[in-house]
Amino acid sequence: MDVEFSEEQQEIRRALRDALDKQSDSPAVRAAMATEHGYDAKVWRRLCDQTGLAGLGIPEEYGGVGFGFTEVVIALEEMGRALFPSPFLASSVMAASALLHGADEGARTEYLPGIAEGSLLAALALAEPGTRDLAAIALPATATADGGYRLDGVKTHVVDGALAGLILVAARLDGETALFAVDADAAGLTRTALPVLDQTRRQARLDFADTPARLLGTPGAATEKALERVRQLTEVAIAAESVGGAARCLDMTVEYSKIRVQFGRAIGSFQALKHRCADLYVALETSRSALYYAAWAAAEAEAAGLDVDPAAPGAGELALMAPLATTQATAAYRHLAEEAIQLHGGVGFTWEHDVHLYLKRATTSALLFGPRTRQRERIAALAGI
């Protein structure tokens, strides 16, 4: 495993960091999260046009840039550092991955170019009330006499579900797991924005009442494999965002410790604070190591495809490393954000300081796929513990 980034990958990081420093600074983030949809459509459009951000991991044949998942992880790390409010996770990672792995060629050809361009925003609806377990998906789909399909039921905690133009829905068709596409203006679909702790990432409840839907791909084992891969990739994506955000929290804390003077000296010169910052650095680097291992496994698994032997390099390791990386990274992220607030003293508790925004992102990211205890149970089962 080579953990060194290529010059091209380092250039991607530099270009994105420069763009985000200019267009997603603190005032821009606060202005975006105060809007109805929680992001700035003009900034999103500009970044997509200038950097190809939305299509970074989408193959060129579907209008994307054609990079691998490693480059997507680099982008997510930088977006997490800037706390960039955008549809990237929901549309370009979750929905795009579901289409690439779980849809038919016609659907990929129809939907992916718009997602890659950034003009079509998509969302993936997995969770249902009371559960976020893929095996517990129960929303029923029924076939109609005219060859179509209808959905009835509820999906909840759908990331960007209230603003997406395309909804991909996991449902049950004759007892089999199936993936469907639903237009945002479809009859019988009611979208309700949920109150969220993290205003930089919106979630919604979707109610389906005899809602027309288009079947994507083949129901059954193929769709189950596809959704499992989507979950794994999303977990690595969350880990990448978390590492970026945690690194920013540590940077802010170290910088503050150099300029805050107490008892006639910078507080960063006190040994007790040095020790705490050193511990935070260790937690951050441990998470970064887990992330990069998971990113390597994801890239290897993506190159091999879904039908490869689960024990093959990359494929089997991704199943284990994805939840491990996200639990490690989100726990470290929250810890670093909490410590940053403490070490900033009184100013750290104020609305005007940005640290609380990172704490909110850390808290909600840890729960996107259910409680951390459930993820650790998966890790233990996969590791044979």
UniProtKB/TrEMBL annotation:
Positions of the Acyl-CoA dehydrogenase/oxidase C-terminal domain: 236-381
Cited InterPro entries: Acyl-CoA_Oxase/DH_mid-dom_sf, AcylCo_DH-like_C, AcylCo_DH/oxidase_C, AcylCoA_DH/ox_N, AcylCoA_DH/ox_N_sf, AcylCoA_DH/oxidase_NM_dom_sf
CDD domains: ACAD
The entry's keywords: FAD, Flavoprotein, Oxidoreductase
Source organism, top-level taxon: Bacteria
Listed cofactors: FAD
Domain Acyl-CoA dehydrogenase/oxidase N-terminal residues, every copy: 6-118
Pfam families: Acyl-CoA_dh_1, Acyl-CoA_dh_N
Family: Belongs to the acyl-CoA dehydrogenase family.
Protein name, entry field: Acyl-CoA dehydrogenase family protein
